[in-house]
Every structure is written in structure tokens, then in C-alpha cells.
Design brief:
Order of helices and strands: HEEHHEHEHEHEHEHHEHHEH
Strand order of the largest sheet: 3-5-6-7-8-9
Number of domains: 1
CATH architecture: Alpha-Beta Barrel
CATH class: Alpha Beta
CATH topology: TIM Barrel
Largest sheet: 6 strands, parallel
Amino acid sequence: MPHKDPEKACRVVFENLEEIPVWPQLPNRSFLESMYVQCIEGMPAVKVNEDEKRVYFDTSQDLTSEIEKFYEKYIGGDLSPFGISETYAQGLHNFLRELEGGVEEIKWLKGHLIGPITFGLTVADDKKQAVIYHEQLMDTVIKTLGRKARWQEKKFREVCPGAQTIIFLDEPYLRAYGSAYVSVSREDVIKYLNECFSELEGLKGVHVCGNTDWGMLTLTNTDIISFDAYDYTENLALYPGEIRNFLDRGGILAWGIVPAVFPEPEQIAKESLESLLDRFEESLTLLAAKGFRKEELLESSLITPTCGTGAMSEELAERSYKLTSQLSKAIRDKYFS
């Protein structure tokens, strides 16, 4: 979210995302709350330069000792070394305090963090080589992210014992999967995601804001696939067999039908509840033409923005959240009342 005030951001969330509130990530508040910096606590050899807005792994010295200490903590099973402190996530900690204060009748809570592929391709070592190509460090990255996901799940259950949990891995870099910029195998993508998912007991999701190999994601252990339905339903429809298998095993599609950062931050100002409902139904019809019943799609669906709203103005971000809530209600009223 674009907000700098965590209390205001949480208020927007609780007022609009009543069904499944999500903690707000606030990169405009601090560089440390950027998605690829927020998760670094607990990783060995990682360095942060706030002045240069840079995070990297220092491989100039022998890493043996640091990595050994990391695995000792990992094997020990204590989640506290893998938590996310308030310095790195003021939005998260304000969200948890709000929940402790007694937000009523919440059935679901959603957490999130950067996925291993996107982190591994974004953050480099001191020689400017992406850490995903450093086998030893990449293993610690995957294990750290998995434990941070588990830590979030644990925190949610502590403050709201009756709620079910959803933890998402955000993988925007998978938009470039298959290109010269992402030389990572299909097998490794599936393996890295599954290792993170293996830490979780509740529902697991993966988000890609753009086009990717959707069939590949259906082969992971994810329960929810979040896709940009505003612009890319046609691409998803190219995988009818894989989507069929995904839905048959209980999978859920999160339709990113409400514009956020993509396709452009200002697009949401041009949309209304009516125009978005029309666009959703066009997308629904497109998938139904591939052999799916509309009823089964609707029963296995969530409505979301296309992506995060961090690059939007506060006003437009709040409009995106409001329309998400209104659209979800309009779809339920039309098809389930």
C-alpha cells in the first residue's frame, strides 16, 4: 500500500477487506519495508545499505561459520530468529495489535512475503551475481522464507485463534519465466516454492502479476493461484487441462480483476462497479468456453486487486480496495442469493 501511516492503512484494510483482511506492506514508509528487504532478518551474510537503498550478500569472506550458525537455528525449530520485526514491517505489527484489540467475526487472515524465485533473482551478492545462482546461500534463502511464512501463520493464530490462515508467496519475477532474463528450470521453480509451502499448515497461495507458465504453478502444492484476470485470463485459458486438475484437487483461483499497479496505476479511476462486473463475467465466460461450468469456477474463486497498490496514490489505492469489496458482494448477490 502507498500509505505511510500504518494505522490508516490498517483502517482501510479492515473497512474494505472484511472477508479476508491482509496486513499492509508500506514501502513508502521505509526502504526496509520494501518486499525484497523486509524478509532478510535471519539470513546469513546479508548486508543493508539504507543510504544507497541496496541489499546484498557479502561473499568476500569465508561464510562457513555464519552458515553453520544459520543451520543450527533452523534445526533448533525456534521460529523467533525468523520473525519479521517492527522495524521491517510496521504495517504487520500494527495489524497484529488491531487483531489483539478484538476485531470481530474474522474467519480468514491473509499474510504474504516475497517468493524465493523473485527474491533470488532480485538480490545479488557483492559481485552482482543473483543469489539464486549461489547454491549454498539460496538454500538458506528458501529456508528463511519458509520459516517467515510459518512465523506469520503462528502470529495470526495467536491473536485470532478462530481464524483460518492464508499465506501468499508473491512472485512477480515469474512474469519473465522462460525469457533470457530468468534462467531457472521449471523443476527448480516447483521445488523452491514447495519447500516454502511445506512449512505451512493453512492455505497456501502464489501470486503472479502478469503472464507465466500457469501449468507449472498448478504442479506446486499451492492451494490458491492469484492471476491478473483484468488482462491475462486468455493466457490462463491456454491451460485448461492443468486448471481442471488444479480445481479437482480443491484449488482456488484468485481473480485479480480490480486494477491496481498493473496495467497502470490510474486505470482504476476509469472503472466502476458495473464495468468491472462486466469484465469479470467476460473472463468467466472465456474460461467456461474451455469446458468449465461457471458454477464450479465461482465456487472456487476469490476476488482481488490485480497486484499491490504501493505505486498508486492513497486515494486510488483506497478506491481499488473499495471496488474489490463491492465487486465481491455484487458477484455473490447475483449468483448465490
